[in-house]
Amino acid sequence: MTEPDQTPGLSHYRADGAARMVDVSAKDVTTRQATATGVLRTRADVVDRIATGELPKGEAIATARIAGIMGAKRTSDLVPLCHPLPISGVEIDVVPAGEVVEITATVRTTGRTGVEMEALTAVTVAGLTLYDMIKAVDKAAVLTDVQVVAKSGGKSGDWSRTTTGAGA
Amino acid sequence: MTEPDQTPGLSHYRADGAARMVDVSAKDVTTRQATATGVLRTRADVVDRIATGELPKGEAIATARIAGIMGAKRTSDLVPLCHPLPISGVEIDVVPAGEVVEITATVRTTGRTGVEMEALTAVTVAGLTLYDMIKAVDKAAVLTDVQVVAKSGGKSGDWSRTTTGAGA
Amino acid sequence: MTEPDQTPGLSHYRADGAARMVDVSAKDVTTRQATATGVLRTRADVVDRIATGELPKGEAIATARIAGIMGAKRTSDLVPLCHPLPISGVEIDVVPAGEVVEITATVRTTGRTGVEMEALTAVTVAGLTLYDMIKAVDKAAVLTDVQVVAKSGGKSGDWSRTTTGAGA
Amino acid sequence: MTEPDQTPGLSHYRADGAARMVDVSAKDVTTRQATATGVLRTRADVVDRIATGELPKGEAIATARIAGIMGAKRTSDLVPLCHPLPISGVEIDVVPAGEVVEITATVRTTGRTGVEMEALTAVTVAGLTLYDMIKAVDKAAVLTDVQVVAKSGGKSGDWSRTTTGAGA
Amino acid sequence: MTEPDQTPGLSHYRADGAARMVDVSAKDVTTRQATATGVLRTRADVVDRIATGELPKGEAIATARIAGIMGAKRTSDLVPLCHPLPISGVEIDVVPAGEVVEITATVRTTGRTGVEMEALTAVTVAGLTLYDMIKAVDKAAVLTDVQVVAKSGGKSGDWSRTTTGAGA
Amino acid sequence: MTEPDQTPGLSHYRADGAARMVDVSAKDVTTRQATATGVLRTRADVVDRIATGELPKGEAIATARIAGIMGAKRTSDLVPLCHPLPISGVEIDVVPAGEVVEITATVRTTGRTGVEMEALTAVTVAGLTLYDMIKAVDKAAVLTDVQVVAKSGGKSGDWSRTTTGAGA
Q: What is the ipTM of this complex?
């Protein structure tokens, strides 16, 4: 379990409970960055095929990476109350490691709100893309531990996940 | 770890390793269904706010559900090698339970390929939508255990996850 | 006010009130057609400019028509509980008439559900496109009387609006 | 009928009549807001079902609201000559009232053009979503009186519809 | 110049010149395939970098291929009068060859219309993606000779381009 | 062949060859413009039909123009490593000329990166739209010579293609 913070409520909802896209007009335009991670858990032999075995050109990893980058750009189309943001940079690492593939996405913008959702969307779309590739050989794969690990910029300042976070 | 199966390779790739959208023209058009689940892990007080506290109209859960249904329809736009499919039905449950919110999506089609990816996409987009709502009050939330739990229809027949799956 | 019919409930919602995309797997694949209409109300001098005055190539009407056709194809992206449908034909008429521009869209599919929503979306997107063109010269324009006027195909059979409909 | 204003032409078209997306590079970046309204006209018993009757969680209204918010973000994808805009806030009210459901959308941006089209698109997509829910029980519903009621920001200054507008 | 054929008119337009999406309801659902090609012309040193030089993982080619596959799925969103089609397979080759990169896309469907436009869209989006990668090192690159080279299925039967086509 | 320039590498890729969306946060926001051209090559009788013959309202050219403008707005959805940009203006010329139709697109933005890709996408989508219209009467049409002809704004300054470019 994680530590409570001071924020009193869910700003995506009005006092009457109705969903809204929060007005951010008054927020400063600053450079903001967020990093999210996630893990696709499967079998070692499947990870091996993704990493080196039968895919000489490495297109499995490239496909996941491209899908994640494109997914980041679609965030506000997918998440109803997200603001559209001018994403200024995305990097995604897709790293095979034993029985898992680790996915890390860092997104940067110069805008009025943070890019946590964009980083999380990049990770999940990259993860779903890997899932799609391997589901014929492992129906039991799991996409797991999708979380923000660091953010910077904006009024709330820098933040990074402590080592004993909720998803550990 | 999960059990290996007999499928020899990753059909999304050619012998030379290049990504492709596999030709499914010769597959039968049958009714197919898949169910996926996932969990958003946060704090009990946050789950409480989502479920009943300050949201009299229940729009947090409704927003996640609607986002998941719309996400299912965008699957082939997001996952590069997925076939576009005429989705014929989607149901999503978003159930607050202590420190977590459990998400279950069932998707049905009458088509040439299964709808596992559509069910997984529905779960992840619903989960990201919840994440977006609560990130101001819990930066450390985690979307986890996203997995297919059952599928039916198609040549490979019915399947359901055993109770000791990889993501448990 | 219109006549009540016999249908007992709103099928887009479950007994517990949750939204869903209704399962249409068991419905027949038949050819279905729907026609919708709508009216953009402005000033006669504005309609005149749209129709003939300063636009020798007629691109205002063509732009609205193209937008409507493309809008019809986006219906299931916009309306959350709509099924994606393989639209097989669209025709749109955009007819200047005094102080109004009349819009009529007919959409056809061979599928499991009707295309009323596609016809309505075509009309509204065409109407919004006209609104966009003229808003600099008439802030007070109104898009009005958007309604289905006829449908055919499917189990419920043919239907057409009586002359004294609700929106008259 | 509404009052003519001084603007001489339709700026979306060149002197030769060709459609274009008007260059707004030289316009100031300011905070701009627009409010649009519309009405879905059906039967009192249908409105009653939407509002309270069989939908305990209120997901019909929430679904329309979410669809409207997401629709606002798709405006420049739908309306050919609209500029893409960084929407900074959206609020939508969906209010059952006798035989009608009243829809009001307010959209805000900090950009180079106004957000009337975004507000109108939010209203129409919310209205189409309601139409979709009830079309099985009222084929004769009408989406009507879709119009801008107020705008502020930008060079042309504040404006609000007089009580005897064209759509009244 | 190519040989005239017997088709009397442009079916995308009515007798009055208005654009429409042609009704294909009466056409047979058959398996259809189309292959299109195109060429990105740049400098040999740039092609070399794409192919082998500084890109050990080959992600430039993979990126173009993935973009092309995803582009094929967006065809009916981009080309106004195209019918949405259930694409059943896509293969794309991206082959560096001296001063050019050759792109070939083959698309298959089981539907009521052909997939020439999907194959052409796949080629152009893959080509634009390559262009984007190299524009910093070669502003003068050209995407050229984009054309259908073969199609099969449907009433009009098989066709392939003769060696002395218009674009040679 | 074109002249080599000084840029040492392909910035869309990291040292390890992985694709990324380059971070442009540090670049200046300036007004930038790019013009691209392309040619659809067909037969003179087909061009004649497009231009005047059977299409009194000129909707073939208008349809291509509208598709190109809308395509420009979709660039970052189609080209994986493109940054989303607030396009501030688009003009497209579609000019029948003998056996060809010449397409020219000029796009303007106030942003952190150039709009060459947006101009190229506008040209190709307009070209594909024309191709779609005429493919029933000329299977052998070719979309060719798609290239940037001029750009201005940004750090690299103004540039225009010399008369003996690679695609001539």
A: 0.92
